[in-house]
Amino acid sequence: MLAFELSGEHATLPSAEVTACLEALGIRFRVELGLPRCLLVDADFSERIGQRLAMTRSIIDVLGVSDASEPEIAEMVRGVELSADRRLSFRVRVKNIGTPLSSAKLERRIGELVYDMGYSASLDNPDFELRAVLTGDKCVFGRTLSLIDSSVFERRRPQYKPFFYPGVLMPKVARVLVNLARAVDMVFDPFCGTGGILVEAGLMGIHALGSDVQRKVLLGAKLNLVHYGAPFTLMYQDARSLGLADDSVSAIACDIPYGHSAIILAGSRKELLEDSLAEMHRGLRLGKRAVVVADRCIKDEMAAAGFESEQVHRQRVHRSLTRVIHVAVKPG
């Protein structure tokens, strides 16, 4: 069993990203238990899972689950089976999500128990890491399989890219959108702007297909995509009239513009939304997903275009803006 230690930056997106990623990679799974910021899933591990996820801190091979009390945790640790090779070194890390237990004290206690089994401790360069996640009234204990480095997303913040334009998505959110779309071989963004979504897709080895009606930002997207070495194709096109064949793209992820300039270019906000959704539906393959971000709920508009809604997530950006992330499928 795998445990996904989730980030606390959103209530629903981290767990939704995990299950979408497993589906995209074709990994059979069953969610066994959902705890605060921790999801237990019956699934086989693949390095590709950790390489894709943005809102997960670590992936753990679960060795045991106990009540979150020192005696129960100690009893569980004594009963787990680690590697048969006692020459291996270890370290212990405890992540405490709101329990009254002392993380430092518990790290020492677990370390003592594992040391007594015949393993040597190494804080700097261990052969394996044991991780305990204290969440709710449970302790999830196991061997760390993957640690996700969130600093790489910070280094790709929009202002650090070769071409910057205000009001764009942060890299973590862009990565989550690609995963929610179950993109594998390609993803299409009909409002690509400076290429934030496309860069994250490209860094996962997914071909990034994008279009925009503004030449300046499209050239900026090219600068950014080249900088990160992402495989891409860009088109100077209006999202209301795309040069795509019917049923030709396997995943869509986009942030529909809601600024004044975008409405002027389209003629009206209603026209921009309805026409672009109709074009996305036309170009998307049957059974595939579109992940569309807007500044309000557009489930009705997406249904009118032919999509079936699967999920809606709300992300507060600031006092006057809440992004609404819609995950929908083209039925068939």
Q: Could you give the topology of this structure?
A:
Layout: E1 2-6, H1 13-24, E2 29-35, E3 38-43, H2 47-52, E4 56-67, H3 70-79, E5 89-97, H4 103-116, E6 120-121, E7 128-135, E8 138-147, H5 151-155, H6 171-180, E9 186-189, H7 196-203, E10 207-212, H8 215-227, E11 232-236, E12 249-255, H9 260-266, H10 269-283, E13 284-294, H11 299-304, E14 308-318, E15 321-329
Parallel strand pairs: 5-6, 5-7, 9-10, 10-11, 12-13
Antiparallel strand pairs: 1-3, 1-4, 2-3, 4-8, 7-8, 13-15, 14-15
Q: What this model shows, in words?
A:
The protein folds into two domains: 2-147, VC0802-like (2-Layer Sandwich), CATH 3.30.2130; 152-329, Vaccinia Virus protein VP39 (Rossmann fold), CATH 3.40.50.150. Helix 1 (13-24) crosses helix 6 (171-180), helix 3 packs parallel to helix 4 and helix 6 crosses helix 7 (196-203). The chain has 332 residues and is an alpha/beta fold. The protein is built from eleven helices and 15 strands. A hairpin with a 2-residue loop joins strand 14 and strand 15 (321-329). The relative contact order is 0.11. An eight-stranded mixed beta sheet has the order 2-3-1-4-8-7-5-6. A four-stranded mixed beta sheet has the order 12-13-15-14.
Quickly describe the structure.
This protein is an alpha/beta fold and 332 residues long. Helix content is 32%, strand content 34%.
Q: Keywords, please?
A:
single chain; 332 residues; alpha/beta; VC0802-like; Rossmann fold; 2 domains; eight-stranded mixed β-sheet; four-stranded mixed β-sheet; 11 helices; elongated
